[in-house]
Batch of 2 targets.
Target 1
Amino acid sequence: MADPSMMICAALQPVCGFINNTGAPAATARRFSSFVCIKRNRRALTKAIEDLQAVEKVVQEQVSLETNQLNKCDPRVELWLSRVDGVLVPIDAIEQECDQLMQYSCFCSSSLSLGKRYRLGKRVLEILEDLRGLIEEGNQFKVFGSKPLPALVEDQPRIEALGIKPVLKNLWEFFNSSNVGIIGIWGPGGVGKTTLLNTFNNELKEWGTDYQVVIMIEVSNSGNLNIAAIQRMITDRLGLPWNDTETVQTRARFLAKALGRKKFIILLDDVRNKFKLEDVGIPTPDSEIKSKLILTSRDEDVCYQMGAHQSLIKMEYLEKESAWELFQNNLSTKAIAAIESPAPNVVREHAEAIVQSCGGLPLALKVIGRAVAGLTEPEDWSLAVQATKDDIKDLHGVPEMFHKLKYSYDKLIKQQQRCFLYCTLFPEYGSIRKDKLVEYWMADGLIPQDPKKGHRIIRSLLSACLLESCKSDSSEVKMHHIIRHLGISLAVRENIIVKAGMSLERAPSERVANS
């Protein structure tokens, strides 16, 4: 026998259309439709779900295209997708209830069944309205994503930062001083200036700041300054449009105005020659412009010339413990096991000798550490020690290290280069009085008979980190072991003075082809 409820619903179907056509109140039409026309609404629900899923697929494809280009999903689209998920998730249960009700319900059953039919029908109509609204909204989207706004601080590579806590603390002290606008950090190549700057940058992000933008730029201006490249980096970080047709002068004026409206921090890494900030479009931080500029350089004079007059930090070589730790961090586990084996331990003695030869220079500790990383036998370690004394350039990675360090030499004028190479003749790990060194240069014809000229050259070599002042006696200078080997390799290449390591007490007269 046919279900009475189904028969009555079928008989009342025309009434649904009549109520809608007579202009009855919408609420009345919906209530009647939800109770009587549940089967028809169930079919409409299925179609609306299919239509919405098709629109959702198109939107998701467009969002994927944007995210693949590193763009950010439009927040309106993001909200729409979350609402679609919220609507579609519970629909399976609603559909199952509809199917069960149409299969088993009886119109003449208890008031509980009638109430359930009404509530379910009402819920189906509500979902239908939501689905149709989402379909219409999804079809109207024209923009699906956009370039993300620049972050306050961009993460920089996290490099092993041993032994920099004191100098990092010093940097923060200068930074927090209201009287300091420009801070200079100087030291030899490979000493950790970039590591310090990266660490400082990342701490700005971790701890937060009231500055509006932090911009880090690698300058490395060994030749002409690439102003356009620096301007492009600043423009990108500010989220501003780039115009290839503009001159650097026009762009500099525009950037100066844009940065002038912000409280900024600019980090300039590896500044090799001075340049005018205004040529790039960077306002000079001062008491009025509460912004900061921090630069690193191998040359102390460059820091002064860039405006870091009262806020200068020198990066020193690593202390013994930090140097040993950094060296070990670049060894293999089997090499470390050989070093830590019970006494008497010849391997450890050799390893300590190698660390000493690196003189606390992080770059050398990493490069030479990797070169000997797999050694376990005492004989192999002994050969490595000898190589660091005699011909360090034959160790793996050392030529590349020399190439990085060589810029400080290349920047010197020819006369200064000859005077630097001359210094490789003096005893390793020894020192020499400045006035004696000047006398030797004059006696050998490297400079005119003018002591002041000689002392200016010493000052230039100290500023370039190619010579060091002796802590025990400021009237004496010395040469770092690694820098000395760099000098010897350059002297051999240029067929200049290379008879090194003799305890000389007078101007050397020998010039040979090999040391």
Target 2
Amino acid sequence: MKQKLDSMSKSPLYGKSPDEILEHFKKYNFVDDHGHKLALCQDFIDLVKLSTK
């Protein structure tokens, strides 16, 4: 279990705010098959917010 926690703490997303996480993913410029950007998807935004509570 400790190894899992150690690797999480080395993540560039660890301890970041939802806005900082969204900015991180915007840099990757992920898009779906229709060209919609991941960082603008409301489901993704909601997931980021839930994961940082």
